[in-house]
What we know:
mainly beta, seven-stranded mixed beta sheet, 11 strands
Amino acid sequence: EVQLVESGGGLVQAGGSLRLSCAASGFTFDDYAIGWFRQAPGKEREGVSCISSSDGSTLYADSVKGRFTISSDNAKNTVYLQMNSLKPEDTAVYYCAAGPRSYGCSLYDYWGQGTQVTVSS
């Protein structure tokens, strides 16, 4: 059974940091790219970052460049999203997703349940 389990969300003040984790199981981790998405109330889902676990290549949305860092621990089948200098506009439910790495970061087959991140001003 494929599972993606996010953790690490919470409440933090503006300027603070959080590290999200996405633990994957049930598929060959190296064959997939893992992406982080977020959705704020009343807004469309937004792609935040993506990493190809096989070669470590990464992508970031302009809104998080320089503040967020995605990384992968292939031994643990886990992808992390280190979020620094958080802003109230980063408040959202954050989801991780997995898609075949042959599609780059454009197509996702599996999704986690999400973790809430709230940034207070």
